[in-house]
Specification:
With about 525 residues, the protein is mainly alpha-helical. Helices cover about 80% and strands about 0% of the residues.
Length: about 525
């Protein structure tokens, strides 16, 4: 009896809460329908990935310290990035499935944020214990949560924001992610210096303490995941809406149907990004050795790619949307990136010029390349195509990170830059082939925005015509009613039928009314 009364009181409380919403008595900050409340949700949404992006480039910001304190060569150092990428070769296919079918968006977000936190703690513990294998294990666990947490973040965005708001939200999320990377590049080295001055010496213990302090940002992201889960659960109860889903549908059998254009896009993606992220991972020492930068200056210039991409990505994305011509924009991005690496490799010009150009090129390519997948793949294969693209990107980054470390150990930075230039030349060749193939097959990758819109409109009209024709055909194929069958049978026997019973005359009368 007591349980029944308690259940009834809970139902009454829910009804009262719903009535408050409907009557407008709820505070705007607490009303899930109000803009103020959604801005509050957006704040937690943006900070959800802050810890992940802050800690991802901890090795790059502490390159010298990690190599010295753990007694590593560069090849071993780059394994820290490779071990992050290995789990995402598979998880890119499974992340959306786990969020949709197994955990749900709220629990899944908390679990992946927990993986990020635990991975960073294991990474720091490995430094404290002076066990490099434990640091690699920590990066592996960190990688399990990192990419899937980004999928969860996007799912929350789609669930809470619609239409034009969504573009702004994605831009803000990307800017916050770049902010996390930038703060890491410029702050974590200072934290290491403060710990060193307090303890009186450098070493693996100082490194471990620094990385453990960095884990506090992952704890903050976990708290944001818990708050988001609470707010989303509350909104679901008040607004009677369903829990958000990623919408990804992944079928590995779709790979055999991928077009030649899509495979060229995959090649561009891998060949381009392996010349960006490994370079940033090894860039700090490069600027110190070649350009005689101080450690602070090297950290600042190494982070400029992320600083520029934060405001540039939304602006360049708007530009690409308005103009179209995606292949030409990708071509421009690859050429300017190639010029940036050539300036860094073969000249002693001010490296700020090359790095600023690299930041703009990196932002432009992301805005122009990734949307092209939707132009060459049917909607039901998009999940598989994007999952496969992220998978081979992580595979390429894992392999090329270790290769870059080995080249640097054996040949030096000049040969490493030549290696990056060779990768970009491969990307450039793939872009040219994509342009020619799209031109001769009359594809839409390089159409202007207006032409693409007209083609899309004509396709919609044609689809409606086909649909209407199908409906008309089905109408003709409908079985006759027993009354109609009896009348047709009597007509064939020569029986004189009244006009209102003649199917042929009735249809003529109906057509005359339409004129």
């Amino acid at each position: 009896m007591a349980a029944r009364d308690e259940q009834q009181s809970l139902v009454d409380e829910e009804d009262e809460e719903d009535e408050d919403v409907l009557s407008g008595h709820m505070s705007p900050l607490c009303d899930p329908r109000h803009l103020l409340h959604r801005i509050l949700v957006l704040v937690f949404m943006c900070f959800l990935g802050f810890g992940s992006y802050f800690c991802y480039d901890n090795p790059a910001a502490l390159q010298t310290q990690v190599i010295q304190d753990m007694s590593l060569n560069t090849a071993s150092f780059m394994q820290l990035y490779a071990w992050y990428s290995w789990p995402n070769v598979v998880l890119c296919f499974l992340g959306g499935f786990l969020l949709d079918r197994v955990f749900g968006i709220r629990l899944g977000t908390v679990i992946f944020a927990l993986f990020v936190l635990i991975g960073q703690i294991i990474f720091a513990a490995g430094a404290l214990a002076n066990h490099f294998w434990l640091m690699n294990l920590g990066r592996f666990v960190f990688g399990i949560g990192g990419e899937s947490l980004a999928v969860a973040q996007n799912t929350y965005a789609v669930n809470w924001f619609k239409g034009k708001e969504l573009n702004l939200v994605f831009g803000l999320q990307l800017s916050m992610a770049r902010l996390g990377s930038t703060v890491n590049m410029n702050v974590i080295g200072w934290v290491y210096g403060r710990i060193q001055s307090l303890t009186g010496s450098a070493g693996h213990s100082t490194l471990g303490i620094t990385l453990m302090i960095a884990a506090s940002t992952c704890l903050f992201s976990l708290i944001c995941a818990l708050v988001l889960g609470f707010l989303d659960r509350r909104a679901e109860k008040i607004l009677k809406k369903e829990q958000g889903k990623t919408g990804e549908v992944i079928k590995l059998t779709d790979v055999k149907d991928f077009s030649f254009s899509l495979w060229l896009i995959f090649i561009i993606c891998v060949a381009y990004y392996v010349a960006i992220f490994p370079f940033i991972g090894l860039g700090q020492v490069f600027f110190i050795e070649k350009f005689d930068f101080t450690t602070v200056q090297a950290r600042a210039i190494n982070s400029i790619v992320y600083i520029i991409s934060a405001p540039a990505s939304p602006l360049l994305g708007f530009l690409v949307d308005r103009t179209g011509r995606n292949v030409l924009w990708v071509l421009l991005a690859v050429i300017t990136t190639l010029l940036s690496h050539m300036m860094l490799a073969f000249t002693f010009w001010n490296p700020w010029i090359a790095m600023c150009l690299l930041g703009l090129s990196y932002s432009l390519l992301a805005c122009a390349l990734w949307p092209m997948v939707a132009f060459v793949v049917p909607e039901h294969q998009l999940g598989t195509a994007y999952g496969f693209m992220q998978s081979i990107q992580n595979l390429g980054l894992a392999v090329m990170s270790m290769a870059a470390g080995s080249i640097l150990d054996n040949k030096g930075y000049l040969f490493l830059e030549v290696f990056f230039i060779a990768c970009l030349c491969m990307a450039l060749l793939a872009v040219v082939l994509l342009y020619l193939y799209d031109y001769y097959t009359e594809g839409e990758l390089n159409l202007s925005a207006s032409t693409r819109a007209r083609r899309l409109k004509s396709e919609d009209v044609q689809r409606l015509r086909v649909h209407q024709q199908t409906v008309d055909d089905l109408e003709h194929l409908k079985p006759l009613s027993p009354f109609s069958l009896r009348n047709r049978y009597l007509s064939r026997l020569g029986v004189q039928m009244p006009d209102h019973c003649s199917p042929h005359l009735s249809s003529l009368a109906y057509r005359s009314l339409l004129k």
